[in-house]
Amino acid sequence: MLRSVVVVGASLAGLQACEGLRHAGFDGSLALVGEEPRLPYDRPPLSKEFLAGRCGFDRLALTTQAKLAELNLELVLGERARAVDLATRVVALGSGRELRFDGLVIATGATPRRLTGMEDLEGVLTLRRLEDATRLRDLIGVGGVRLVVVGGGFLGLEVAATATGFGAAVTVVEPQPTPLARVVGPLIGRCLAEAHADHGVTLRTGIGVAGLVGEGRVAGVRLDDGSVVAADVVLVAVGVVPETAWLEGSGLDLTDGVLCDASLCAAPDVVAAGDVARWPHPLAAGTVRLEHRTNAAEQGVHAAANLLAGKAATPFRAVPYFWSDQFDLRIQAIGIPRPDDEVHVVAGSIAERRFVACYGRAGRLSAVVGFNRPRQLMGYHGLLARQAPLAEALGAELD
To answer: Is the pTM here over 0.90, yes or no?
Structure first.
């Protein structure tokens, strides 16, 4: 029986794991470790509502001191986990303190990738933490700023859309032929490119970044063809790396995250959840690591339950869901789309940017993507959960 659990990572997945443990009846000692000095907070609004100035930190907070007190846990903030010894069951912190455990939840998330030389230039940022969003808002909020976003993924596109509201001149640089090409494929990617172009965003697609230009402060971004895009501010949004350095030498498989079995177990009495976890999902070809808010929330609860369940642990098979708000578009997806999937528009019109599209792989429904059609999109959830044939999904009549 577990009498002490340490949760490393004080963001959404870690907090949900703590709440899940207590709600499941765990009454032993519980510690939540977080590198940042503040209470757990929501990250998706950092590129949208918070960046735009429409909400403050009070709207981002995921919990309060009073609610944490009800969980009867030890909150260890401003401390970075340095190492773990699974044999002696000890987590070593940067301060030299050691936390002993019977059960361990790994929820350390991910860290933004960086460009070579960006540390030497002012005005070059990544976006992951509250301080990053605050700094970016200060830089682009003055109006007329030339912002270059390196990376045409969800984060980069959301920031580009938000920055246009400040009157910034925005350029997005993306090496793939369309934005989000590796996620939703070229058809939907072109739709997004056209939406951004209609709002004044300049897109440089199909070309990579050779380096940054400037002395002391960034002045531009040099592209692979030798051209330079002038910039006052550069946001680097080229993906993230799972935060696993502290786990090196532990014996865990750390190839692109913490490898888990279907129940999110990485080792006896060790589970992982959120951006850092990689596990086999029925809708994926092999293992997958997802960086979605809903995945972090659901995995935190499920991992906690399985930590207590032991041999009775159950697979984590929740249908993934993610969304993005850009301009007047609510983009939603369920399942796991891949760029090489078949894509069939089953309702609405891509030209009008209000549609639902079904994705198919090996004759089965793999994902559904929708623009401004939330109710109809969610109607396919049950079909995805049972991996329905694509033909059945295409013939479904859903409101």
So the answer is: yes
User: What integer is the mean pLDDT of 178-203?
Assistant: 96
d(CA 241, CA 344): 32
CATH 3.50.50.60 fits 116-236, yes or no: yes
143 pLDDT above the threshold of 90:
no
Indicate if 328-395 has the same CATH topology as 116-236. no
**DSSP, residue by residue, 81-114:** EEEEETTTTEEEETTS-EEE-SEEEE---EEE--
- Indicate whether 142 pLDDT > 90: no
Q: pLDDT by residue (tens digit) across 210-259?
A: 999 999 999 999 999 999 999 999 999 999 999 999 999 999 999 999 99
Task: Report, as an integer, the average pLDDT of 314-325.
Answer: 97
* Those residues with Cβ within 8 angstroms of residue 382's Cβ, 6 or more apart along the chain or in another chain: none
Query: CA separation (Å) from 267 to 18, 107, 253, 312?
Result: 19, 15, 10, 15
Number of CB atoms found within 10 A of residue 370's CB: 26
Extents of the domains making up the chain: 4-111+240-312, 116-236, 328-395
User: Over 90: is that where the pLDDT of 399 sits?
Assistant: no
Burial of 87 by CB count in 10 Å (0-12 exposed, 13-18 middle, 19+ buried)?
Answer: exposed
Residue 215 CB contacts under 8 Å (≥ 6 apart), including other chains? none
User: Model confidence at 285, in pLDDT bands (50, 70, 90)?
Assistant: confident
Is the predicted pLDDT of residue 190 greater than 80, yes or no?
yes
Helix ranges, 80-228 (H): 130-140, 154-164, 181-198
Query: What fold does the segment set 4-111+240-312 form as a domain?
Result: FAD/NAD(P)-binding domain (3.50.50)
Count Cβ atoms below 10 Å from residue 319 Cβ, excluding itself: 22
Residue position matching structure tokens 């002012």: 122
Is the CB of residue 110 less than 8 Å from the CB of residue 242?
yes
* Rounded Cα distance, 357 and 377, in Å: 9
Q: Give the pLDDT of residue 397.
A: 72
Amino acid present at 333: A
Domain 328-395 has CATH 3.30.390.30: yes
Angle value at C-alpha 57, between 296 and 29, nearest 5 degrees: 50
Q: How far apart are CA 19 and CA 316, in angstroms?
A: 18
